[in-house]
Specification:
alpha+beta, DNA Primase, Chain A, Dna Topoisomerase Vi A Subunit, Chain: A, domain 2, 4 domains, 5-stranded antiparallel β-sheet, 5-stranded mixed β-sheet, 28 helices, 19 strands
Length: 675
């Protein structure tokens, strides 16, 4: 369902952020704001602030920022529609009524949900009845406690073709509803519809709201066939796709695990729901499981709402590794900053349930602590595919890895994967005996690293900066036909010195990054004109700073302002000098403004400050945008080696030179020490 901006604004107007946040965070009023300990990161000093007037929260420890809907989604793992629905109910705001077709579908869903709940009660009663002896013995063998049975509502489907059908009919449900829910099997070629689940231990499957939408059944007879016959064995059997249940869209135990996942900042995904139950019983309440299929894109999104790096826990055998490899392929296109996967492999021959029962929870904790990042599993998979002893085979591996990385949608993550895999190949193969011959000797040999972008580790001298500049004047290399290429872009290895003007430019400054002058200028404005912070707090908090020291100072200024909105210049400086950013503050105060940047000085008028601030922000955004475009252009050159790509790099370099301003390399060096 789509929600109009007017509706969302009405909910926000009726529910102060402090009211919603205050249910999870102990808030103390500080002027016009509230402060408390971050719900996103363990801390001792409050860095989390709520502003009811502006309708947002901001966490300086983690960078999290948003409104009441975002807070509910981040802390409880709910979807946006669910967050809107819950907060609208709390605020007393009526949601739009669905049309006639929507109402019919909703009525149907309500009936089917009631049917599934009645089925669960039937299975629970059957487990305790005389006919449930086989199921009870199986459960005792698995060592499940009575409390676990009740919590997960485990039951038993009698060995009968009509027991459930008759029970549901007495409860007022039709054969059509039973069939639509997946609890009966019917068809034109089936004279009498019959129960889908028979002589099985039953595990209810719930949606994220905790409503039962499907079942999983574990066969008690080793020779038991699937409901369709044909001799197919089915140890585990799930409900079919229904209006309530799409197995690729849900995770078993997700509705219970999401709060534990938030509290522990961890979510564990295992292969089967029996493993999820056992681990939850052992204290790992943040455990979920897919439903008989390989991990899907929708299931990944659910996991990422609970944790930035879910841990996929697989058996250590070949089947477990194949499952991990499938998960890698599924995840690659969706990787982004703050969204990846970790992989924990159990000792061969043991599943999570076995490990916990034989060696205790500490053994599983140790295994989870050794979880490996996705890139490790990806590289291991491709490296294990063959023998890489010849140049042709190595080239084939590089191409395979390039093709896989190209599937990553996020540009920044893709670039880091290129570099990481470049380093791994370089470490695996190393330079040839005798080193690399220069282009002047007729050699076209180059490292795996140079083809991937960026010089390989053995090609970079100690202390050299990366990208377009570096210490010692040896980071520009001569390419074909005498063209100058940035490091990692050329094919030869003959070094040439950059010009003196190039060495002095912002792009090859000693810190190797965006010049901090513009950042220091913005901070100087805040220090000399703290009244500006009140209206610009959100923009200031979102500023991308390249200097860690300046970023720390920015956060300290915002924190001081949050505690006291009426700070004047002297009071603000006194507060900051008492903190850990005092040295950085001194450096910023010493920053010399250009004549065109006079708005940063204490005697500048309000209109002059506001106009200058807007201009400085625009220039800063321009600089950041160009820097990102340059990184993208470099990667494009690594992909196609075209003249157009190289011309684009040169053009972006010139633009960066023009907007970089008069940076002070001495100040940059001092800031580097301060951070």
């Amino acid at each position: 369902m789509r929600f109009s901006p007017h509706l969302l604004d009405e909910i926000r107007a009726r529910l102060p952020v402090s009211q919603v946040v205050g249910r999870k965070v102990a808030l103390k009023r500080k002027g016009r704001e509230y402060s408390g300990l971050s719900p996103f990161k363990v801390e001792k000093t409050p860095s989390f602030f709520v502003n009811d007037q502006k309708g947002f929260y901001h966490c300086f420890a983690s960078g999290e920022h948003g409104d009441i809907f975002t807070f509910l989604m981040k802390t409880e793992g709910v979807s946006f529609p669910e967050a809107v629905e819950r907060l609208a109910q709390e605020a007393g705001v009526a949601l739009p009524k669905p049309d006639a077709r929507d109402e019919a579908r909703e009525d149907q869903r309500t009936r089917l949900l009631a049917l599934m709940e009645e089925s669960a009660k039937f299975f629970e009663a059957a487990l305790a009845a005389a006919g449930g002896g086989d199921a009870r013995r199986y459960i005792e063998k698995r060592g499940l406690k009575r409390e676990t049975l009740a919590q997960f509502r485990i039951g038993y489907a009698p060995n009968s073709r009509s027991a459930l059908k008759e029970h549901l009919a007495k409860a007022g449900f039709t054969l059509e509803e039973m069939t639509l829910s997946g609890m009966l099997i019917a068809g034109d070629d089936i004279p009498v519809a019959y129960d889908r689940f028979r002589h099985r231990v039953m595990f209810p499957i719930a949606d994220l709201k905790g409503r039962i939408v499907a079942f999983g059944g574990r066969a008690l007879d080793p020779d038991q066939n699937t409901p369709g016959g044909a001799g197919h064995k089915a140890k585990y059997l799930n409900s079919p796709e229904t209006p309530l249940f799409h197995k690729g869209h849900l995770l078993f135990n997700a509705h219970r695990a999401r709060q534990a996942a938030h509290d522990k900042d961890r979510i564990i995904a295992v292969e089967g729901y029996m493993d999820a139950i056992s681990l939850s019983e052992a204290g790992f309440t943040e455990t979920v499981a897919p439903l008989g299929t390989a991990l899907t894109e929708d299931q990944l999104q659910i996991l990422w709402r609970m944790s930035a790096e879910p841990i996929l826990c697989f058996d250590g055998d070949s089947a477990g590794k194949r499952a991990a490899f499938r998960a890698v392929d599924t995840a690659l296109p969706h990787l982004k900053p703050g969204a990846s996967l970790m992989f924990a492999f159990l000792p061969d021959g043991l599943d999570p349930d076995d490990l916990v029962r034989q060696q205790g929870p500490a053994a599983l904790d140790a295994c989870l602590g050794r979880a490996r990042p996705l890139i490790d599993v990806l590289f291991e998979r491709e490296w294990g595919q063959g023998d890489w002893s010849t140049p042709e085979r190595r080239a084939g591996l590089e191409k395979t890895l390039r093709d896989l990385i190209a599937r990553i949608g996020d540009e920044t993550v893709r670039a880091h994967y290129r570099q990481a895999l470049n380093d791994r190949l370089a470490a695996a193969w190393g330079p040839p005996a005798g080193g690399w011959r220069g282009a002047g000797e007729g050699s076209q040999a180059r490292s795996a690293g140079s083809r991937w972008g960026g010089a390989a580790p053995w090609q970079r001298g100690a202390g050299q900066a990366t990208r377009f500049g570096g210490r010692g004047g040896q980071n520009f290399r001569r390419g074909p036909a005498g063209r100058g290429f940035p490091p990692g872009l050329g094919q030869g290895t003959e070094h040439v010195n950059p010009s003196s003007s190039l060495r002095k430019s912002a792009l090859v400054a000693a810190d190797g990054g965006l010049p901090p002058y513009r950042e220091a200028l913005l901070l100087k404005v805040m220090l000399n004109h703290p009244w500006l912070i009140e209206d610009q707090a959100e923009a200031i908090a979102a500023l991308p700073f390249t200097s860690t020291a300046l970023s720390r100072l920015r956060d300290a200024i915002l924190s001081a302002h949050a505690l006291d909105n009426s700070l004047d210049t002297e009071t603000l400086r006194t507060h900051l000098n008492k903190s850990s950013v005092g040295k950085v503050l001194t450096l910023v105060e010493r920053a010399v403004s250009h004549k065109c940047d006079r708005f940063a000085e204490p005697d500048a008028g309000r209109t002059e400050v506001e106009d200058g601030w807007r201009h400085a922000l625009a220039m800063h955004d321009r600089h950041v945008g160009l820097q990102r475009s340059l990184e993208a252009a470099e990667q494009a050159w690594h992909e196609d080696r075209s003249e157009a790509s190289f011309a684009r790099i040169c053009d972006l370099k010139r633009q960066l030179e023009l907007v970089s301003g008069a940076d002070s390399s001495d100040m940059a060096a001092e800031l580097g020490h301060a951070s």
